Please model this.
Amino acid sequence: MQRPYNFSAGPATIAPEVLQQAASEMLDWHGSGMGVMEMSHRGKEFISIYEQAQADLRELLAVPENFRILFMQGGGLAENAIVPLNLSRGGPVDFVLTGTWSQKSIKEARKYCPVNVAATDEAQGFTHLPDPAGWTLSPDASYVHLCSNETIHGVEFHELPDLKALGSRAPLVIDFSSQVASRPVDWSRVGLAFGGAQKNIGPAGLTLVVVREDLLGHALPACPSAFDYKIVADNDSMFNTPPTYAIYLAGLIFQWQKKQGGVQAIEARNIAKAKLLYEAIDQSQLYVNRVAKDCRSRMNVPFFLRDESRNEAFLAGARANGLLQLKGHKSVGGMRASLYNAMPLEGVQALVSYMREFERTQS
Ligand SMILES: *Cc1c(COP(=O)(O)O)cnc(C)c1O
Model:
């Protein structure tokens, strides 16, 4: 059965092979007589699932030994509070404001520490990334936060800044919710990375945190124990019951990603997918993407119809052609196609040919 192509920004498409495997193991995981949801998180069956998922993720993302991988809950938005609770030591902290998600992070961090907005392109409508050479970093910042892929505005850091070269000693924190596992991470430039799983690595409910060990153990006294990175790390993410089924499903996705050739091979495919769609947009008279070319996101492609009165017709035709969830985020309107790892090139080809056909029938 050919399923429709699902361009949702998240929760997002998952490879059918992964869903089929989960379905086949639903009632009885590996002869254990139990489904994964029914297992104790401390039993040997689940521990083996957990350890495999940790090991596969470490291999996929080439996470160095001095970083811990934490499986948490609360999503990216909870991390907007959990990060300052753990890392700010009372502040100040520097933020780069590049779109809705970094804006939300700033708003939340202000509850816990003084916030300095080191750079923004808000005046240009979040269509560019401010050049790191011009950032006004605080000399005593506890950390610098940026969103490495702005899921709504469709801007992506294709290179992470080298804070040391910019004269900052602070660790870099990245919100890579919608970028994780779509490309390699330069861990030499990162102190902590966090992301909800539901874009690229699993179902909602699991939040991934990858944190350098020396950043553990500095939580503010008010930090809830379940959100204290050191407590979570010391308990191998089992201080409280972790989201066991989400971890299991993420583990299946990590294995699928390894079969795809790992993150380098996936990145090459993601580059090809994004190129195909952006070229189709740029060559058309009907569609437009306003993001500067060197910071366009590979994962989330917002685009607009020059004639916005055709939006509903576009979406209805897309659905009829098996192209789902293309409506743009309500805050920016228009369309958005998310091209996460599990979106095959064929899905983007189908979208592009539908877009051409729709444009042809408009005049
Ligand atoms: C989706 C997303 C979030 C929010 O994640 P939740 O799981 O809904 O809390 C945060 N940051 C970015 C960049 C996202 O794309």
In short: The first strand starts at residue 5 and ends at 6.
